[in-house]
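Duplicate of #3305? Posting structure anyway:
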C-alpha cells in the first residue's frame, strides 16, 4: 500500500507541469516594435504567465532590435508555462525579429489574413550589408539561430534559412502548407479549442485550454509613453531643448522656467540614450555645434561659427543612433528642417544686430529739454546716465556747468548752457 501511494505521488508530481492550472489563459497583446522597453514589459508578462494554463502572445510587430529580441526568445524558452504565439488580428504581421519570437513558441498559430517572414539582417542605415566576411558572419549566425528554433519545434528549418538569406515572407495559408506554423485559427477561443490536448514534445507540456477564461493584458500608459519617448527624432529634439534651456538659464539667471524644462528634457533624453545604442561621437558633435552657436552669438565672426556649428549639429544628429537598426535612426529630413530653422533664426538675429549697429539710436522725444550737469570736457550727466555732448555753438564745456539738451544725434547730445 505504501509503495502504491509513493508511485502515485511521484506520478502526480511528474504530471503537474502538464496538468491544467486554474482554468485561465493569459493573452498578452504585443503590437509594438521590439526594443528594451517592450522587451522588459513582455518578459514580465511571461513570468506572470506561470500562474496560468498557458500564455498566448498576440503578435503584430515589424521587428526591432536584435538584442531585445534574443532576450524575449530566452524568456519564452525558459518559461514555466506553455507559450503560444498567435499572429493576430487579421492584417497582423510577424516580421524580422518577430519571426524569432514566433518560432520560439511551443505552439505557433496565425490568423487567416496575416503574414510572417522577412528576417534578413540589414545595416544600421537600412541598406544591404556589403559583400564581405562580415556579411557572411551575420547571415550565418542569424540563419543558424532561426533554423535551430524551427527544427527544435518540428517546423520547417529550410524556410527559416530562406527567411534570413532571401527575406522570404509567407501568407498564413502558405505558412501552414510549408509547416512554418502549426495551425490557423480565426479567433483566440477557436485557437484554444484546437490546441487543447496537444503535447509539446520539446518542453514536455500537455495543453489544457479548451473553455479556459481569457485574461487579456495590454501595454499600459507608462510603457507606451516610454516606448514613444525612445523615438530617435524626439530624443534628439529633447536633447537639444535640454541643453538650450540650461544655456539660457546660465546667461539669464533667475528666469527659472527654461532651466527647469531644459533639465527635464535632458534627463528624458539621457534615459533614451541609455536604452538605444548611442554613438557618443554624435553626442560630442551636437554639444560642439551648440557651443559654436552660442559663441557666435557673443563674438563677431560674420556667421562663420554659426555655419560650422550647424554642420557639426547636423552630422552629430545623423550619427547619434548610427549603430541602431534603420527604424531607430534620426530622419534626414528632420535634421535638415531643424538645422535650417536654427540657421534661419541665427541669420535673422545677425541681420537685425548689424542693422541696429548701423542705425542711430532713436531716443525718446522726452530727452529733448532735459537738464544735466557737465562731468568732463565732453561728458554730461543726464537722467542718471553719462552722455557724450557738444554745445550748439562749438564752445568747450567746463565741469559743473548746467546744460539743457537741444537735440539727440546718434549717441551724442547737442546742448546749450543754462
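Output from current build:
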Amino acid at each position: 500500500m505504501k509503495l502504491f501511494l509513493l508511485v502515485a505521488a511521484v506520478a502526480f508530481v511528474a504530471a503537474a507541469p502538464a496538468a491544467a492550472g486554474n482554468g485561465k489563459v493569459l493573452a498578452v497583446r504585443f503590437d509594438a516594435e521590439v526594443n528594451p522597453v517592450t522587451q522588459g514589459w513582455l518578459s514580465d508578462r511571461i513570468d506572470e504567465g506561470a500562474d496560468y494554463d498557458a500564455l498566448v502572445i498576440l503578435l503584430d510587430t515589424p521587428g526591432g532590435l536584435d538584442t531585445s529580441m534574443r532576450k524575449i526568445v530566452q524568456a519564452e524558452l525558459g518559461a514555466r508555462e506553455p507559450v503560444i504565439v498567435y499572429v493576430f488580428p487579421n492584417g497582423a504581421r510577424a516580421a524580422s525579429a518577430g519571426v524569432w519570437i514566433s518560432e520560439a513558441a511551443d505552439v505557433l498559430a496565425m490568423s487567416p489574413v496575416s503574414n510572417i517572414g522577412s528576417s534578413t539582417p540589414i545595416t544600421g542605415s537600412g541598406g544591404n550589408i556589403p559583400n564581405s566576411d562580415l556579411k557572411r558572419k551575420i547571415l550565418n549566425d542569424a540563419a543558424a539561430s532561426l533554423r535551430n528554433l524551427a527544427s527544435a519545434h518540428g517546423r520547417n528549418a529550410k524556410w527559416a534559412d530562406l527567411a534570413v538569406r532571401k527575406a522570404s515572407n509567407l501568407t498564413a495559408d502558405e505558412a501552414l502548407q510549408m509547416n512554418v506554423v502549426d495551425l490557423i485559427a480565426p479567433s483566440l477561443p477557436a485557437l484554444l479549442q484546437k490546441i487543447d490536448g496537444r503535447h509539446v514534445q520539446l518542453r514536455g507540456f500537455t495543453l489544457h485550454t479548451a473553455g479556459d477564461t481569457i485574461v487579456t493584458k495590454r501595454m499600459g500608459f507608462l510603457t507606451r509613453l516610454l516606448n514613444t519617448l525612445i523615438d530617435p527624432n524626439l530624443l534628439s529634439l529633447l536633447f537639444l531643448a535640454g541643453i538650450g534651456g540650461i544655456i539660457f538659464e546660465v546667461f539669464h539667471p533667475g528666469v527659472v522656467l527654461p532651466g527647469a524644462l531644459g533639465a527635464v528634457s535632458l534627463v528624458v533624453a539621457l534615459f533614451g540614450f541609455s536604452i538605444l545604442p548611442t554613438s557618443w561621437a554624435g553626442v560630442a558633435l551636437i554639444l560642439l555645434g551648440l557651443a559654436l552657436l552660442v559663441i557666435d552669438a557673443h563674438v563677431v565672426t560674420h556667421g562663420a561659427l554659426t555655419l560650422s556649428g550647424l554642420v557639426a549639429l547636423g552630422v552629430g544628429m545623423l550619427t547619434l543612433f548610427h549603430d541602431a537598426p534603420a527604424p531607430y535612426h534620426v530622419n534626414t529630413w528632420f535634421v535638415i528642417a531643424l538645422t535650417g530653422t536654427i540657421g534661419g533664426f541665427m541669420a535673422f538675429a545677425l541681420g537685425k544686430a548689424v542693422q541696429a549697429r548701423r542705425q542711430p539710436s532713436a531716443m525718446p522725444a522726452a530727452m529733448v529739454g532735459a537738464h544735466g550737469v557737465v562731468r568732463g570736457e565732453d561728458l554730461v550727466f543726464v537722467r542718471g546716465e553719462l552722455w557724450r555732448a557738444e554745445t550748439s555753438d562749438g564752445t568747450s564745456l567746463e565741469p559743473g556747468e548746467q546744460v539743457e539738451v537741444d537735440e539727440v544725434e546718434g549717441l551724442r547730445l547737442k546742448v546749450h548752457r543754462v
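Confirmed duplicate; merging threads. The chain has 14 helices and 16 strands. The longest strand covers residues 402-409.
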